[in-house]
Design a protein that fits this description.
Helix content: 25-40%
Largest sheet: 3 strands, antiparallel
Structural class: alpha+beta
């Protein structure tokens, strides 16, 4: 019987993140999921790593900085899963939104 250092139950976003972090730290990992890894994740999230654009309007610059750091980390660690996608979104002049770019998983 094979043994593992870490057993993670649930292959959603948190479970797979914990499993990845444990494996990156050199642990042997067993990930247990009832259906399929991330089976419900895509229906419950936008898959958008927004880089903090949504926080600009309310002036939450700390969250913008944190989001940009996380986006850069994802782009570096998972370039096969994350890509930068330029887009333009509609806005009214009163809101002052500007075109931007986001990374998509």
């Amino acid at each position: 019987m094979e043994t593992f250092d870490v057993a993670v139950i649930g292959g959603g976003i948190h479970g797979t993140g914990v499993a990845q972090a444990a494996a990156a730290a050199g642990h042997s990992v067993l990930l247990l999921e009832q259906t399929a890894v991330a089976a419900g994740s895509s229906s419950r999230s936008s898959k958008l790593i927004h880089g903090g654009l949504r926080y600009l309007e309310s002036g939450q610059f700390g969250l913008v900085r944190e989001s940009l750091r996380e986006r850069a980390l994802m782009l570096r660690l998972a370039p096969d899963l994350v890509r930068v996608q330029r887009f333009t979104f509609p806005y009214t002049r009163t809101r002052g939104a500007v075109p931007g770019s986001c990374a998509w998983v």
